[in-house]
Write a structure and sequence with these properties.
The chain has 240 residues and is α+β, with helices and mostly antiparallel strands. It folds into 2 domains: 89 residues; 113 residues, 3-Layer(aba) Sandwich (Cytidine Deaminase, domain 2), CATH 3.40.140.10. 46% of the residues lie in helices and 15% in strands. The protein is built from 9 helices and 5 strands; from the N terminus they run H-H-H-H-H-H-H-E-E-H-E-H-E-E. A 5-stranded mixed sheet has the order 2-1-3-4-5, sandwiched between helices. The longest helix has 23 residues. The N and C termini lie far apart (51 Å). It holds the Pfam family RadC.
Amino acid sequence: MTADEQHYLGHRQRLRERILKNPQEAEAYELLELLLGYVHKRSDTKPLAKELLKHFGSVWGVLNAHPTELETIKGFGESSKIFFILLREIVARYFIEPIKDKKSVTLDEIAMLARCRLDGLCHEEIWVALLDNNNRLLSFDKVHAGTMDAAFCSPKMIAEIAITKKATALILIHNHPGGVTKASWADRETTLHIQKVMNLMGIRFLDHLIIADGKVISLANNHLLDENEIIFNDNDKSIV
């Protein structure tokens, strides 16, 4: 072992002990440095940790970055990519699983679930949250994965999923990878069309959420649905 290896391995051990005692006081780069150390066991990971933070701005930005974006950072290879994909999936399930087990969910909880799945994607995806009459979440399903600026879904596609899951209500969700925090005319027209078909089928169309730039936009909150049956309390419908 070289002197340099002895230095950073000793530093890593001291950092590990310090973080175990008080993780809240650790700097963001130190947390990433130690995480990366489990992938790059015999190299100094501090420069890579700092470069990731410089490029993506925060730990949230790093964990939310798409793998193809992460790979543009020098030193971030295939092993690091796999590690971060696993880490993101574990974090997502940490938040998602308790929501799925609740007897009744709020719109804020559906929004959190949606952000866990759709934030950071480089392409558009369409999902549906399917609920019963008591607002219990029956399932959260991907309907379609599209391109960077478009995704397609028809009322038939959504109806088939809703009928299969015996849902009586649904929330439509999709993302804007470009970060535009506003519903387009196409978004509104598609929403109203799906809403009318669901209403004819006796399935309550509760909302359409758009995930963009770390935010959640509710078409119902913005009065962009022609019919909106209020089933959530006003406090529950507040989305940032």
